[in-house]
Amino acid sequence: MESNTQPLIPQQNHKKYHTYSFITCFAVVVNYIVGTGVFGLPSAFYSAGVPLSTITILIFCILSCVTAIYVIETLSRSHGYAMAVESGEYKCEMGYEVYDYSSMAQMWGGKPVKWATTITLMCSAYGSLWAYVATCVSTLSTLFWLIYSNEPMKCDVSNRWHFDWKCNVTYFTSIAVYGLVVIPLTFIDLTEQSLLQLVLTVYRFVSFLIMFITCAVQLGKNGPIELKVNTYEDVSFLKEFRWVGFGSMFTHVAFALACQQNLPDALAPLNKKKFSHIATLGSIILCCFIYIGIALVTSWCFTTSTPSPVTLAWADYNGYEGGWGVGKAKWWAIIIKYMILLFPIVNLTNEFPLVATTLSTNMRTLFRNKNSKRTKFITKALAAFPPFILTCAVGSLRVIFDVTGSFSFVLCFSLPCIFHYLSRRKVIAKFNKTKTPFSGPWSRIEVTGAVFIISLLLFITAVVFIIKELVTNFTVA
Fold this sequence. Notes:
Layout: H1 22-33, H2 37-48, H3 50-87, H4 101-149, H5 165-186, H6 194-221, H7 246-256, H8 263-267, H9 276-302, H10 331-341, H11 343-364, H12 373-384, H13 386-393, H14 397-431, H15 445-476
């Protein structure tokens, strides 16, 4: 019979760990959250209507906060359990080791749970990385045609299979350029990027503020605008519950607030573990309200012509008549234009290595010699290259979110509940301990069950609406 104490992952040792401060940790978690979701959210906001979209985001924010705490509690139990095997004494606290999703799944649920978790995480992470590449490629292509011929919308990725040869050359060249930048960054350790994380967090907030202000000025002076020919201004979405768009909204939000699977990597280097929950919950809540503000004002500004990613709308910004008028762009408008157009590239150039690191860390658990340099290199390569191959085939964010959003949902909402339940039950049985430093009313088993059931019902509802939307679009076509 196999011992219950073997194997423990990761194996404990007493090496010196690299750490960072609370501020850096907060920045890292924010950087994990703010991925492609925010760029596709305005389009989904318009599709589902403001009331339904706002309610959906707030519900997901609450669920994200609760399930993030479940992950933190499970990390504490994982460290305490591993230490108890070495010393015989169980002390529930967070350590500096990285207990990734796959490690926690094996520790608390055994090999079946580990394999299910690893496969789900890989699908979700590849989906996120795929979306990052697609967003940046779309932006690079837009920038090229804006500079070369002042035709920023010449090559629309939603019409990918009808590109002419010029658009195809631009598309594949953009893929190569982005790959040359981010793939090398994937092989750099996260703790060596602390200053970069802080700088990019500031850049994100400044860009969000500029997006909000420019759209608010446009709405205040001239109202909504039409970015494309044959589109019209439609503000009915401000008051309507558009259930037909709920499925798309659901998958976008699942991407937009996803960070739970990345918390083990983000929180492990934090020097003051008692603030882990503050850094995490603060990041989620802050991003939630930023998302609502940005999605509302941008979808209201561009209505039916809201692009995805939404930053492409600034390709026509010139500073006249509220911002999107007629005339040669003013000097300060040019600065704003390129700052926003470059936002996805800068943002996701930083985000890609973070998620690739999480993916490679979990993939390493599938190898026998998981800590060798060769294994680390192979898993990072396996994490970094496939998203570029997928983008060669499909570059539409809407398709990517609809296909892979369900995996992110399972990782962010279902698995944390399962980890919390399994770890709590095992620790009670073995050590008769129930609480962690982060326990509260949300830790009760009834609450965990309720969160799991609510998440499952939301997931089923979203799948139904996604299928309905696909059938409707196919019928119309």
